[in-house]
Amino acid sequence: MSGPAENHGVVTTIDSLSNFADKSVTVRGWVYNKRSSGKIQFVLVRDGSGVVQCVVVKNTVGPELFSLCDLLTQESSLIVAGRVHKDDRAPGGYEMQVEDMKVVNVAKEYPITPKEHGVEFLMDHRHLWLRSSHQHAILRIRHQIIKAVREFFDDRSFTLVDSPILTPASVEGTSTLFDTDYFDLGKAYLTQSGQLYAEAAAMAFGKVYCFGPTFRAEKSKTRRHLTEFWMVEPEVAWADLNDDMDLAEEFIEYVVRSVLKKNEPELKLLERDVAKLQPVKRPFPRLHYDEAVDLLKKNGVDFQYGNDLGGADETIISRQYDRPVMVHHYPAACKAFYMKRDPERPDLTLSVDVLASEGYGEIIGGSQREDDYDTLVKRLEENNLPRPPFEWYLDLRRYGSVPHSGFGLGIERTVAWICGLEHVRETIPFARMIYRNTP
Ligand code: 4AD
Ligand code: MG
Predict the structure, then answer these.
(1) What residues does 167 pair with on adjacent strands?
(2) Is residue 394 over pLDDT 70?
(3) Beta-carbon contacts of residue 117 (< 8 Å; ≥ 6 apart)
(4) pLDDT value of residue 8
(5) Pairing of strands 40-46, 404-410
(6) What pLDDT does 7 receive?
(7) In the CATH hierarchy, which fold is given to the domain comprising 5-105?
(8) Which atom of ligand 1 is nearest the CA belonging to 234?
(9) Which ligand is nearest to the CA of 173?
(10) How would residue 2 be classed by pLDDT, with cut points 50, 70 and 90?
(11) pLDDT tens, 79-123?
(12) What number does the ligand 1 atom closest to the CA of 365 have?
């Protein structure tokens, strides 16, 4: 759609206004706010790239155009043409002296106003809430995190090999599977993790990653759990647990540095204390499960050796350090069937969880994989997993099995940590949780 008048210069976006100082341009957007002082109206317009103050002076534009401003309710859409002026007091450093304006749609009374709304109300209006500056900043940071994730692996010769979403079997245990009828083939399940397929791909390509939505029928109603979330999962042939931890810390450092570099305005808007993110550099502390248990006991937690760490335990551990901490060698009893055991301590697995700092807890789960055919067959039996859907997975141990490792990073928990948010529900455009599948 063109501007109100073709002679008002190019159509541009608000983030590019600095290229047009003292020139006339056209921008298209939505009314963010409006105030008036008699013969001058100030209309704050947002277009997704930024916000600009548009100054409408009655004596310059004439009474007819000036009165158009009275129509402008919050979130009305419009096309404005005007001269760009540098103004250090203005939000983006520039404002527009309006020369022409076209109202495209006068918005009905907008449900989200600057007053406080409850979270449930805002989540019910998520399709509109996305326009608010906080939500906008969070999703811009999410975008940058995803970009950094891809850059990191692409620059290190990993090949993206995506895993299927509809699968015949479970990866992370059967208790959190969503199922669906699949024609004449019985049940299919929404994948909990692309890992098993990434392992197949690693045997074909060496270093791979998959990156997609994953699903858990989580009954837990916590600030860390979604039923649909995005996970990136690298898998590397010939890598052992130590290599896996080296990769995880380099990866997290890269992602955090990239956000610190690219998202200063968004972090500022969210009032994120970036001093807490600055120390996120290699090496991260590495804590054996036994040491983690001792640390919990020292902090007065009545912890049962052999259990998985709960959210509260992770919070206590991660608060001890100024950067993420890697807890490794979890007991086999609380981890998945595919994890290789420690040959010296077969009750423990060659596994690692990376706990984000400031009490955020687990953002990565990973391990070295069991690569021996007979042992893996035994593990399937011990876990009461049916053999037929895993035959292809056993093939990877029949034909040229090698040591290999990988991990999965949850995007939403990473966004929550980097943005300093209480809850993961705001870190994904449209959250799916136990009590929510709309809008
Ligand atoms: O620890 P998890 O279950 O590990 C796996 O799925 C492995 N198969 C990954 C691998 O080795 N390739 O999940 C990995 C990460 C967690 O650390 C967390 O960040 C995220 O996925 N995650 C969730 N995020 C939001 N809501 C949930 N319900 C999540 N469950 C796991
Ligand atoms: Mg885990």
Answers:
(1) 189
(2) yes
(3) none
(4) 72
(5) unpaired
(6) 58
(7) OB fold (Dihydrolipoamide Acetyltransferase, E2P) (2.40.50)
(8) 12
(9) 1
(10) very low
(11) 999 999 999 988 789 999 999 999 999 999 999 988 899 999 999
(12) 1
Band (pLDDT 50/70/90 cuts) for residue 173 is confident
Give the H/E segment covering residue 104.
strand 94-105
CATH for the stretch 123-426: 3.30.930.10
Domain regions of the chain by residue span = 5-105, 123-426
Give the Å distance between the CA of 283 and the centre of ligand 1.
23
- The single-letter code of the amino acid at 362 is E
As a whole number, the mean pLDDT across the chain is 96
Find the 60 Cα to ligand 1 centroid distance in Å.
59
Edge-to-edge order in the sheet of strand 351-356: 159-160, 207-215, 228-237, 404-410, 361-368, 351-356, 325-328, 286-288
| Residue 391: exposure state from Cβ atoms within 10 A (0-12, 13-18, ≥19) | exposed
CA angle 141–147–148, rounded 5-degree value: 90
Give the tens place of pLDDT for each residue, 148-165. Answer: 999 999 999 999 999 999
Q: How many CB atoms lie within 10 A of CB 209?
A: 27
How far apart are the C-alpha atoms of 321 and 359, rounded to whole Å?
Answer: 9
